[in-house]
Amino acid sequence: MHELSIATSILKTSENEVQKINGKNVTEIFLEIGKISGVEIPSLEFVWEQCMKNSVLDGAKVHIAEPEGYARCAECNHEFKISKIYDSCERCGSPFKEIITGQEMKIKKLIIC
Ligand SMILES: [Zn+2]
Question: Where, by residue number, does Zn(2+) bind (predicted)?
Fold first, then answer.
């Protein structure tokens, strides 16, 4: 269960942040999960509630941004949108590329009270 370990690590980071400022709870959390990060958001939501029960994130409002996948071709420098990590350059067909966005998996902001 990949998503469960993600939820656990989000919780760990949040706990640290709450502790740092002597807060009580997280009221809102803003996540960034790229479209090609491989994270299934419905699965994450599925494990979320159980995982966050009685934690600093219990009852927190969750906002999830899903940046599109973009890559830059290593051969022709063309920037293009990708929906899968294995997509080739749409201009020259090269499979070699640098992923620019879409693989994010991070906490962007926490609102702590
Ligand atoms: Zn190319």
Answer: 73, 76, 89, 92
